[in-house]
Design a protein that fits this description.
Distance between the termini of chain A: 59 Å
Radius of gyration of chain A: 19 Å
Structural class of chain B: alpha+beta
Oligomer: heterodimer
Radius of gyration of chain B: 27 Å
Largest sheet of chain B: 7 strands, mixed
CATH architecture of the largest domain in chain A: 2-Layer Sandwich
CATH superfamily of the largest domain in chain A: CO dehydrogenase flavoprotein, C-terminal domain
Helix content of chain A: 25-40%
CATH topology of the largest domain in chain B: Aldehyde Oxidoreductase, domain 4
Number of helices of chain A: 13
Largest sheet of chain A: 5 strands, antiparallel
Number of domains of chain B: 3
Number of strands of chain A: 12
Number of strands of chain B: 34
CATH topology of the largest domain in chain A: Enolase-like, domain 1
Largest interface: A-B, 31 and 40 residues
Bound molecules: flavin-adenine dinucleotide, iron/sulfur cluster
CATH class of the largest domain in chain A: Alpha Beta
Chain lengths: 327, 764
């Protein structure tokens, strides 16, 4: 039997100390960790339950920013009136993630740390080769069933898609993750695989996510999250886009636009080329569609996932156009 | 365990309890309160837990199995390999064909598919068994696998002569037809994915074996266990009070079942074995992948002159499964010339099996897509072309239909759907970014018949017990048998308790092919009639009966009270009568077999499918029929398809309980939506392994994917199909749904998708 010790942390301090132990893993809602333990992917020697730490689930929207505690539940954040009002893309991304049951259990910190859905990653017994699990062992996905795999940010080591929704919106609006001493842009917190597929996050032993902080902006206030998927609910994105838009006083010229992509890249992907192509331009459908084609610059497909290259620009364009329709 | 509280049963109509009433499921309250204990939820003293070890290669030989680490792991009681498991005997197949006289080993030495069981571990706890199973090291001499039908090594396969159906000169007539369509239609490997996984508990007491296992066929599975262990049939007791979905997968005892029973014997302890969810994708077969070409030749009025059909389905390297692909093709439309042939191709997979409407389902996808293509080719409305080619009799068997309310189904469905408002051209209906498409397709399923027996007991307190080894997997057997007994005997339905799912009860054949309701209502009707005759006989003839003096010819029972037909004389409850005449109980056993049937024939009837009665026996051809009308919305940029409306009109003959029949139809339609848009076993071609064998990655519809579904019953009682006039319900609903959706997608987009499922990349 795989024995492990279980510790309940009462404070962030205690959690940090315990998390520094080799083989220790934090447990929040458990919807990722328990799942991965069952698949044989996660084999913690110590499970540090942080779900009882007081105050870590606060949601504070003030002074032009939102600070969301790491233990806030996905469903609470999604339903929070001021998040809905000032950061609609954040709320919408959460609503469209997972299922009602999962959203009621899952925490925001855990959400950022969720792992890829690459089926080879999740089946160690049948597919020992996976650089993400076992560095240097190879990649079982390349040459296999790749319908869900990434087309952006891939490497020879790994082509796994970052599956989450929330982080796409966070990256679009320059959110930061609080790790105690350190604060990082969410965009930098996620790492593309490169030659080190096993490193997905810039997080160090003993670090605990305490909160995320999203600066308010006109673009965040006028934002949306569009998720395209094989079925209507309870499914990861085939391609998704978080978009925020700010127009000049003339109501036509684009002052600020934020675009990030989900479901197509190895990490939450900011589409800066599209943003740059649109800033200062007059908002109209042709301009938007043309700029959206830049979404897939540098994309590389692996056969079955080629459709993502066609799909993602259309998702981006639709999301931007939809925002244009709302006053 | 099986006596259900009726008083909570919701009532939404008059005469709920009569046959034909909309009584809610009598087992519903037990299920939603958790009081219903499923087979593997039995709590037994000393239960040990078994976990299977599966092959990680698709083809090859097991060179060695290193069990040392597993054997010394905490809690481990037994590690089973082909070398250490006790020898079993090969069991006969489901036709009862005597087995070759060779031993049976449920653990493979020669591996023919990835996921095949090669070893097993039994431990004190489930967790210990899981951990130890991971320590079993198997080495293989791997050989190249044939991964699927498109593998270059697969070849053309084996012709199945019995599937050939031909009349006229189909090739020549097709060549001579002024209008022709010809295309290939493919369906992927699909899985039953029942909520309740497969598993069992096995317990030996001396030479007697009790198995708690979800089962669609207690008697058939009990026979298999008896043959494996060379013990008398009577020594096996199979218990299966509820089944959490089977969809065809739970009719046979499987290799893991043998392992659990063998290890229980070896240990002298009861053993529980549950397959993991991924193992539920490899331990038994789902629907075989299929390929069909359908060629239709017609004249310019759309009258079909010829249909040429060729089909292929995959089967296993060491097992045979034929998915009859010409079954709908050969009967749906009138044609003077016809040819259908089928091959099977061996690939490295578990033997495919029955999944809801095996044969008819993929067959309908071919012919019902092809006729739609013909309709567009000719510019004729897809509904109209079906009516122009309406088969007035069975074109293959050349017999009259027992009943065929398909024309009525088309009419009722079209009316409710608003088909007349359809704009004919593809891409001509839209709502914002959504292209809207309307599609129609027909479906059918044969009336499979067999025999059953039932016991009906009238007890001293006037309550009634029905006993049968048939089962309820959600389709409503508990409920309709209670209704049948209540109506036949004239007692309130709350007074009837139905006991099912125990092979020691009166016997029943397989709950498959939508036959159980027709068979069992007939058996219960017969047994209850006998019990009633005896009750009335006692009341009239027994000198102690208060009715004795009346010298009546007959009496009636209404609401559990006995009286003369005109109401003169006394009126007694059944309990009062039984007490007056000094009887504890009236017992009646009824079966639907001819009186001359021998014991051996009876055994064969219940434990094999060899005695099934052909649906074309005698003067009639018997089938249920349906027409599905579907609206889809396709996002023009994203290619995503969502079904926004379904209206289906169905002919299942007389409905024993319309509420339950509608639920089954809807369940089939929902499964059909999944088949059309989502379901597909994805094979890694290098490893010959399904990589989405779990419920996160194997897509089935969620509630959000399912619109309101309207079902309309157009059936009439069919006396040739069953004792009470019903035809099959369970499989019918799914047949034709996938082509109706594919046809609607074509209408929406102008793109014909002939490979299921219709995923977004095929439309983008
Ligand atoms: C079937 C299914 C479908 C899903 N669909 C979607 C979807 O559509 N979109 C989507 O975005 N997500 C989806 N998810 C993922 C889901 O959102 C995550 O599982 C969830 O957010 C994780 O949160 P948790 O609190 O349960 O994390 P846990 O399981 O408790 O933890 C997850 C990981 O994060 C670490 N961790 C937890 N808290 C912290 C912290 N404060 N600091 C540092 N590390 C921490 C843990 O050690 C662990 O490694 C799905 C999940 C499942 C199981
Ligand atoms: S894509 Fe990445 S996660 Fe998937 S098998 Fe390859 S290395 Fe592992």
């Amino acid at each position: 039997m795989r024995d492990f010790s279980y510790l309940r942390a009462d404070s962030v301090e205690a959690a940090r100390n315990a998390a520094a132990l080799p083989g220790a893993m934090l447990l929040a809602g458990g919807t990722t960790l328990v799942d991965l333990a069952k698949c044989g992917v996660a084999e913690p020697s110590a499970v540090i339950d942080i779900s009882h730490i007081k105050g870590l689930d606060a949601i504070d929207v003030s002074a032009g920013r939102a600070v969301i505690g790491a233990l806030a539940k996905m469903s609470h954040v999604a339903d929070h009136a001021e998040i809905k009002g000032r950061f609609p893309a954040v709320s919408e991304a959460l609503w469209q993630a997972a299922s009602a049951q999962l959203r009621n259990m899952a925490s925001i910190g855990g959400n950022l740390m969720q792992r890829t859905r690459c089926p080879y990653f999740r089946d160690p017994a049948n597919f020992p080769a996976c650089n993400k699990r076992a560095p240097g062992s190879g990649c079982s996905a390349i040459g296999g069933v790749t319908r869900g795999h990434a087309v952006l940010g891939t490497s020879e080591a790994c082509i796994a898609t970052y599956p989450g929704d929330l982080a796409i919106a966070l990256v679009a609006f320059d959110a930061e993750v609080h790790l105690g001493e350190r604060r990082l842009k969410v965009e930098d917190f996620f790492l593309a695989p490169g030659a080190t597929a096993e490193r997905e996050h810039d997080i160090r032993p003993g670090e605990v996510i305490t909160a995320i902080e999203i600066p308010g902006s006109a673009a965040a206030r006028r934002s949306t999250y569009l998720k395209v998927r094989d079925r209507q609910s309870y499914e990861f994105a085939a391609a998704s886009a978080a978009v925020g838009l700010e127009l000049e006083g003339d109501g036509r010229t684009i002052r600020d636009i934020r675009i990030a992509l989900g479901g197509v890249a190895t990490k939450p992907w900011r589409a800066r080329a599209v943003e740059d192509a649109l800033k200062g331009k007059t908002f109209d459908e042709a301009t938007v569609r043309k700029a959206s084609e830049l979404t897939m610059e540098g994309a590389v497909d692996h056969g079955a996932n080629h459709y993502k290259i066609e799909l993602a620009p259309r998702v981006v364009a639709r999301a931007i156009l939809k925002l244009g329709e709302t006053a | 365990m099986t006596v259900h509280e009726m008083k909570h049963a919701a009532s939404d109509g008059a005469r709920l309890e009569a046959v034909g009433g909309r009584l809610s499921r009598v087992d519903g309250p037990a299920k939603i309160t958790g009081a219903a204990h499923y087979a593997v939820e039995q709590q037994l003293e000393g239960l040990a837990h078994a976990v299977m070890v599966e092959s990680t290669v698709a083809a090859g030989t097991v060179l060695s199995i290193d069990t040392r680490a597993a054997e010394t792991a905490p809690g481990v009681l037994l590690v089973l390999t082909p070398d250490t498991i006790i020898p079993l005997r090969t069991a006969s197949d489901w036709f009862g064909t005597p087995p070759p006289n060779v031993p049976y080993c449920p653990l493979a030495r020669v591996v023919t598919y990835s996921g095949q069981h090669v070893a097993a571990v039994v431990a004190e706890t489930f967790e210990q068994a899981v951990a130890a199973a991971a320590l079993v090291k198997v080495t293989y001499d791997e050989t190249p696998a044939i991964v699927d039908l498109s593998d270059p090594k697969a070849g053309d396969g084996i012709p199945i002569e019995a599937m050939t159906k031909e009349w006229g000169d189909a090739q020549a007539a097709f060549a001579a037809s002024p209008v022709r369509v010809c295309a290939a239609y493919n369906t992927p490997r699909e899985f039953q994915a029942a909520m309740e996984p497969h598993g069992l508990i096995a317990r030996w007491q001396g030479e007697a074996l009790t198995i708690w296992e979800p089962s669609q066929w207690l008697d058939g599975m009990a026979r298999t266990y008896a043959e494996w262990f060379a013990i008398p049939f009577e020594n096996v007791r199979l218990v299966s009070p509820y089944i959490g979905g089977g969809f065809g997968s739970k009719a046979l005892a499987l290799a893991h079942s043998a392992v659990a029973a063998a290890s229980a014997k070896m240990l002298g302890r009861p053993v529980k074995l549950m397959l993991t969810r991924p193992q539920n994708f490899t331990s038994y077969g789902g629907r075989a992948a299929t390929r069909q070409t359908v060629a239709i030749g017609a004249d310019r009025d759309g009258k079909i002159q010829s249909i040429v059909h060729r089909g292929v389905n995959e089967t296993a390297v060491d097992g045979m499964w034929v998915e009859p692909l010409g079954s709908v093709t050969s009967i749906m439309y009138a044609t003077p010339n016809f040819s259908s042939k089928q091959n099977v191709v061996r690939v490295n997979t578990v033997v495919p099996g029955a999944k809801r409407a095996p044969g008819e389902n993929p067959s309908a996808f071919g012919i019902e897509s092809a006729i739609d293509e013909l309709a567009y080719e000719l510019g004729i409305d897809p509904l109209e072309i079906r009516l122009r080619n309406y088969a007035e009799e069975d074109p293959h068997a050349r017999k009259a239909w027992s009943t065929r309310q398909l024309r009525e189904a088309f009419a009722a469905g079209a009316e409710a759907f608003g088909w007349a408002k359809r704009s004919p051209a593809p891409r001509s209906m839209r709502d914002g970014h959504h292209l809207i498409g309307w599609g129609v397709a027909a479906g059918t399923y044969p009336v499979r018949r067999a025999h059953g027996e039932a016991v009906v007991n009238i007890l001293a307190d006037g309550s009634v017990e029905v006993e049968s080894s048939s089962i309820d997997m959600g389709q409503g057997t508990y409920t309709i048998l209670a209704q049948t007994a209540a109506e036949t005997l004239g007692v309130p339905v709350e007074q009837v308790s139905v006991k099912l799912g125990d092979s020691h009860f009166a016997r029943a054949g397989v709950a498959g092919g939508s036959r159980l309701a027709g068979v069992m209502t007939g058996a219960v009707y017969k047994a209850a009639s006998q019990a009633l005759d005896e009750l009335i006989g006692l009341a009239i003839a027994d000198p102690r009966s208060p009715f004795h003096a009346l010298q009546a010819n007959t009496l009636v029972v209404r609401d559990g009270r006995i009286a003369s037909p005109r109401g003169e004389g006394p009126e007694l409850s059944i309990a009062e009568l039984l007490s007056a005449v000094g009887r504890e109980k009236i017992e009646a056993k009824g079966d639907t077999m001819p009186a001359t049937t021998t014991a051996e024939e009876r055994y064969k009837n219940y434990t094999t499918i060899a005695m099934s009665i052909p649906h074309t026996e005698g003067d009639y051809s018997r089938h249920s029929w349906c027409a599905h009308f579907v609206e889809v919305r396709v996002d023009e940029d994203f290619g995503t398809v969502r079904v926004s409306r379904v209206v289906s009109a169905l002919d299942s003959g007389r409905l024993y309980n319309p509420k339950l029949a509608e639920s089954q139809w809807k369940g089939g339609i929902i499964m059909g939506i999944g088949q059309a848009l989502l379901e597909e076993g994805l094979v890694d071609r290098r490893h010959g392994r399904i990589v989405n064998g779990n419920l996160a990655d194997y897509m089935i519809p969620t509630n959000a994917d399912i619109p309101d579904i309207q079902t309309i019953s157009v059936g009439i009682p069919d006396p040739h199909s069953s004792a009470l006039g019903g035809k099959g319900v369970g499989e019918l609903g799914i047949v034709g749904v996938a082509p109706a959706i594919a046809n609607a997608v074509f209408h929406a987009t102008g793109k014909r998708v002939r490979d299921l499922p219709i995923t977004l990349e095929k439309l983008i």
